[in-house]
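Weekend entry, working from home. Most of the wet-lab plans are on hold until the incubator is repaired, so I used the time to fold the two sequences that have been sitting in the queue since the last round of cloning. Logging both here for the record. First:
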Amino acid sequence: MNYLSVGDMALQFRLRQHNVSLKQEMSTLSKELMTGVHSDIGKALGGDMTALASINKQLRALQSYDTAVSEAATLTGSMQSSLEVIQALTGDVGVSLLSAATTTNSIIIDATAKDAAAKFQTLVATLNTNVAGRYIFSGAASDTRPLSSASDILLELQTLVASETTASGVMTAVDDWFAAAPGAGGFLDTAYAGSLTALGPVMTSDGETTDIPASAASPEIRQTLKGFALSTLISDGLFRSDLVEKASLARLSGETIVAAQTSLADLRADLGTSEALIEDAKARNTAETHSLELARLSMIGVDEFDTASALNALQTQLETLYTLTARMTDLSLVDYI
């Protein structure tokens, strides 16, 4: 019988080689156990990557939709909160102005108008809200502050009504200024710096978009601004010596603010519809992403039990190899003489 002997150096080399091989296999299996995915995906799929590429493409698209949906949810949520503040500002102001107008008491009218004037400043500041670097009521021009300051708007109106001698004349001039079309020198040209194009539509999923309707140029917002601006004119001294016209303008201001409350509620309802559509899209995208990730895992995932068993077996082999190597190292010719 023929025997093939292996020299000491060759044996040590083979032992080291086997040691490296076992460690590499253990590293691969450890990574697969932690990630749950085959280290060699091409081999796991038999070289056919078509289905996996399609799933990965869908997942990337859903990730971009998720980013857009998250941003839209933040914007609409901030808009809704701001509109809630604005609606709260209108609160009892309209009714208070109507009540003050019936008293024909200049002190009461002035005090009520002063309260409305203070809220006018808060109203303008709220419409200039900036969230994450974007002005939420500027329409598509979200990098631009939508409104001039309350004092600048008041200055425009003071110049506009300087020659008016009646409350109805003031009302007509202010109404025309807020309602003027672009290019006519009204509110949209001198006080509003945002875009007349709405923010959006936002692509929330494949083939589905959602509009974000509100801006400081919305008729509902302009009506609210107009009501408070009329009171601010009273507070600034318009018709100071004419109680009848002052009371009449307070009444017109109150009526405008009361009417604006209903308009604001309608605007908030429209915005709420957009919020609901965004939330629905977010839920659908999340469900679809989960489904695709499961499908992807079924294609390239590893069986955790089998992988753990293989890892244990390799560990046993490595320990055996270390034991054998130690014994080989301890061999001495003296032991056999």
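Second, folded right after the first finished:
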Amino acid sequence: MQALELEAYTGWRRGLKLVSRPVPRPGPGEVLVRITAAPVNPADFAFMKGMYGVSKSLPTVPGWEGSGVVVAAGEGWYARYLLGKRVACAAPEDGGGTWAEYMVTPANRCIPLRRRVSDEQGAALLINPMTAWALVDLARRGGHRAVVQTAAAGALGRMIWRLGERRGLTMVNIVRRPEQVDLLTGLGAAHVLSTHEPDFDDRLKAVCRELGVTMAFDAVAGEMPDRLLAALPRRAEVVVYGALSNSVCQVNPGRLIFKDQRVRGFWVSRWRPRFGLPGQVYAGLRIQDMLAAELETPIQARLPLEKAFEGMEQYVKNMSAGKILLMPGGELSPR
């Protein structure tokens, strides 16, 4: 089979190449998925630099999520149940990923796709939509009424904004460029601020005070958690779920000590297993009902594995335009 193989944790430009590998075989509790579509995510770039929460023995196939058809199954009732079905699938933490024609993964890392859900939307179900679902649920369970988020123009940021407002939260959206302000306001967002504005910090503080913001979702890291805390009231909380700046989080300790503020991390790969298989499948099926609306993934290109490097260059230049989908099989599955 064809696959993209990572030889070293030096990033995709130096460590990744297109190779031929044997088709893997599923063991007990595992399934073999013929991959139809697999997105390129920021998490994949972090993984290929050795900056992710999981590292694997090299060489390995990257790609943390995708969609496809289960074509072989090992022992176990759920693995057998999935045989022949279209699924959204997550890569194992100790094996090859979705940037290949085939992948073996534990059956409990797969969710059946409804007939009305496309392979393209199903391929991006397990990271961004799940993260949006979890973060909005976290805010609501914590009694927060208004939330500010960074990286709001990206695919995940737009999901968090739409789902948050549907669930009754007031959302304040932070972006980096004027055209991203235009994008979100054009889509209907009421509160959009850009870090390029010279008075950004003052405006952020004023808006957070006016709307009663008490929680923040941050995908940037670096100095951003501290800037968010500076705009938030006592006992406010910043949830860091990404590091687009590739920088260490910086926080004034006085905010933690004297204002009783808090910074915590969130990783959807650790959130999903807490609910067990029934809970994961239930959440996955509920999310599929919203893939054509609040949780729809915008897609800017669909490319075969041979053109993956072009696609990654395109994605790095403009992540807000939508996902790059790698199509190892060359065509979508019939529904």
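Plan for Monday: verify the second prediction. The chain is about 35% helix and 25% strand.
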